[in-house]
Specification:
- The complex is a heterodimer of chains A (82) and B (415).
- Chain A is mainly α and 82 residues long.
- Chain A has three helices and no strands.
- Chain A has a single domain, classed as Orthogonal Bundle (Non-ribosomal Peptide Synthetase Peptidyl Carrier Protein, Chain A).
- Helix content of chain A is 48%, strand content 0%.
- With 415 residues, chain B is of the alpha/beta class.
- Chain B folds into two domains: 142 residues, Aspartate Aminotransferase, domain 1 (Alpha-Beta Complex), CATH 3.90.1150.10; 234 residues, Aspartate Aminotransferase, domain 2, CATH 3.40.640.
- The model of chain B has no long low-confidence stretch (mean pLDDT 96).
- The chains are: A mainly alpha (82), B alpha/beta (415).
- The interface between A and B is small, with 8 and 13 residues.
């Protein structure tokens, strides 16, 4: 199990999903699939920045980059490495 | 001329896609004044049909009230038709100031500024009062006009789960580092008919030093004991910092809206809100008519009391008949059908029975939450509601959805 992806997935479930929502996978399209609206992405970005002590520049925080757990994990790794 | 065939084709394809997806909106032409009984041409070109209107925002039945029409006529005579100006050049008449004062008194606020519509009020207020150092925290089901206004503003924007006060509190804690916090909600949510918990929200805003904005368009005139709005219902009059509302629904239903609240906020809008600065003043005839509406509503609660009774009657009738009705106590009464096509076909079948009520589905409401939204009016008499109920039951039987659970309806028709 990928710990980073689980953290992201659990945050999304708690933050955005309703109790009767369909379960999500690492590949579920979040923004283009209508699960997360692009406004609500802000709190996810802030959560990741605080938890991993990173700064994701606004130009990198695009709806495409936040569209699945896999993509978000990739983005976080890019900045934790740096 | 720069509209070559390929551009035309592009738009034709997009319109075709909307039609194929069942998302193309068709207008029905009404040949009579707005009322409980209306005459409708639908589809275009067909002969007129008399139907009962169950989907107008004419909550208090004032859209075609004789006294309101008389006041409009009189103002047309005394103040003319148009002002040909924005407010700050030469578009402010004495009656515009009088209406701002009367709205302030009615809502129990400090000051009011008129806008051409509540859509414009919502489009203008955020940018006028917030900067990039601030945060807006809004309910996830707020009206589209608030979302558009928020988009026009440089403040950070985050959301909380619909009416979830714990989630709102978490967000307020999270953004304590911001210069200003503004919490945004509808008073009555237009698609579900539920109300924001303004007593709790005021408490949280006080605890975490945040301002509160409420769009009360579906409440002003009839929610609360004397119809002042959601803030009256929850006992927080004077504690909501900003109320935006419309004259285009219960208050005569023509056009126009306002921002009402803290004096400094109103003044900031007067100085900086772009839809106020760059759009024409409200036509005098509307101002005169809305003044009459406020006079009627300040003299008696008869109309909102009747609306409340009609709403109870309608909700009880539908529930007993076996429909799944969204819980609430407002005159917005959604009948849940879950499936988009079912909602459309149900609406068509109702129309055949002489009932005008529209189906709503994604993207107006979330996927799998399709419904018929009915709206009750003080213009409805019991015989209107009985006839509408008979039609709903007949159509409900036809589609076999009475006394069925959500799961059973979804099994029959899909999400």
């Amino acid at each position: 199990m990928d710990e980073l992806k689980e953290v992201i997935k659990n945050y999304i479930i708690n933050e955005y999903l309703e109790p009767d929502s369909e379960p999500i996978t690492y590949d579920t399209p979040l923004i283009s699939g209508g699960i997360v609206d692009s406004f609500s992405m802000v709190s996810l970005k802030r959560f990741l920045e605080n938890k991993y002590n990173i700064q994701i520049p606004d130009e990198k925080a695009t709806p495409e980059a936040f569209d699945s757990v896999n993509k978000i994990a990739e983005l976080v790794r890019e900045f934790t490495k740096a | 001329m720069a509209f070559p065939d390929n551009v035309r084709q592009l738009y034709q394809d997009q319109l075709k896609a909307l039609k194929e997806a069942g998302l193309f909106k068709e207008e029905r032409f009404i040949h009579s004044p707005q009322a409980a009984d209306i005459e409708v041409e639908f589809p275009a070109g067909s002969s007129l049909k008399k139907v009962i209107n169950m989907c107008a925002n004419n909550y208090l039945g004032l859209s075609s009230h004789p006294e309101v029409i008389k006041a409009a006529h009189e103002t047309l005579e005394t103040r003319g038709f148009g002002m040909s100006s924005v407010r700050f050049i030469c578009g402010t008449q004495d009656i515009h100031k009088e209406l701002e004062k009367k709205v302030t008194e009615f809502l129990g606020t400090e000051d009011t500024i008129l806008f051409p519509s509540c859509m414009d009020a919502n489009a203008g207020v955020f940018e006028a009062i917030l900067t990039k150092d601030d945060v807006i925290i809004s309910d996830r089901l707020v009206h589209a006009s608030l979302i558009d206004g928020i988009r026009l503003c440089s403040a950070m924007h985050d959301t909380y789960k619909h009416s979830d006060m714990e989630h709102l509190e978490q967000k307020l804690q999270m953004y304590q580092d911001k210069r200003l916090r503004l919490v945004v909600t509808d008073g009555v949510f237009s698609m579900d008919g539920d109300t924001a918990k303004l007593d709790k929200m005021v408490e949280l805003c006080e605890k975490y030093n945040a301002m509160l904005l409420v769009d009360d368009s579906h409440a002003t005139g009839f929610i609360g004991k004397t119809g002042r709005g959601t803030h009256e219902k929850y006992g927080v009059m004077g504690k909501v910092d900003i109320i935006t509302t419309t004259f285009g629904k219960a208050l005569g239903g023509a056009t126009g809206g306002c921002v009402s609240g803290r004096a400094e906020i109103v003044e900031m809008c007067r100085q900086k809100a772009r839809p106020y600065l760059f759009s024409n003043t409200i036509a005098p005839v509307i101002v005169g008519a809305v003044l009459k509406v406020l006079e009627i509503l300040s003299a008696t609660t008869e109309r909102r009391d009747k609306l409340e009774k009609n709403t109870e009657y309608w909700r009880k009738g539908l529930t007993e008949a076996g429909f799944i009705v969204k819980e609430g106590d407002t005159p917005i009464v959604p009948i849940m059908l879950f499936n988009a096509r079912l909602a459309q076909e149900f609406s068509k079948a109702l129309y055949e029975e002489g009932i005008y009520a529209i189906g709503f589905f994604f993207p107006v409401v979330p996927q799998g939450q399709a419904r018929i939204r009915t709206q009750i009016s003080a213009a409805h008499e019991i015989h209107h509601l009985d006839k509408a109920l008979d039609a709903f039951i007949k159509v409900g039987k036809k589609f076999n959805i009475l006394h069925k659970t959500k799961q059973e309806i979804i099994e029959m028709y899909g999400m």
